[in-house]
Each structure stands twice: as structure tokens, then as C-alpha cells.
Write a structure and sequence with these properties.
Layout lengths: L12 H11 L8 E4 L9 H16 L3 E6 L9 H13 L8 E3 L7 H6 L31
Parallel strand pairs: 1-2, 2-3
Amino acid sequence: MEEKNAGAAPSNFIHGIIERDIEQGLYGSKVHTRFPPEPNGYLHIGHAKSICLNFTTALKYKGLCNLRFDDTNPEKENAEYTESIMEDVKWLGFAWGERLFYTSDYFENKERARVCGRSERGRNKEKPRHAHRSRERQPFQKQKRR
């Protein structure tokens, strides 16, 4: 981990904003980033850039970075993509530790969460989960607007 040079310009505008916030004591001077891929395809170069930016920013400021799957479209998602994304993040040299999350964990509507693959807390976070693994349930039907 390289030390910040006193008075040196930040390496990019995001780091400039973070450094200003830290100087002002905002957010308890903590940095917490996240990489939120959708598990509906393989990663591309733009994803790799986002992974590097988010994980290295967390490292630079001694913060944390979450891997949070945006699993809100079960019709297009596949466990193969979830596993591939996890492998790619590791291949790039980063680890999320215990910070593996799924957007569907935050759904207010329990039925929507169940259909999108939400499982009980305490699941094995090293093993990806996906709605398509148990498709005995009826798919979520979008409500018509009135």
C-alpha cells in the first residue's frame, strides 16, 4: 500500500472528492465502495475498470469494498454468470471477504424477493445463489398500473 504524498494531487476526481470529504470529517472518514454487477452475462473491459477502481479505492483509503449482485431480473440471470463474475474479480487480484450481497436481500416485497432467489440469512456466501436453481415457484407477475 503506497502512502499518500502530502500536498500531492489526487490520482483522479473520485479520489479528490474522497480526500475532501475525509479532510472535512464527513462520513466518519470511512470509505466503503461496492461493485454491483448484474449476473446476466460475462464481464467486459468496463466492468474490469469498475472492479479495479472500487477495490483499489477501498484499499487506498483502508476501507471496504462489497461485491453486491444486482439480481433484480431473474429472467435474464444465470448462476453461470454469477460464478464467472466471482472468478473474474478473484483473477484481477481482489477479494470481498464476508461482503458478498444480493440486491434482492433488500426487497420490501417478500414475494418478489422469494421469486428473485432470496434465501435465508446465514447462507454459504462462497457459493453463488440464483433464482433459477429452484424454479418450481411461479414467476413474478408484474402488477398492471391503474
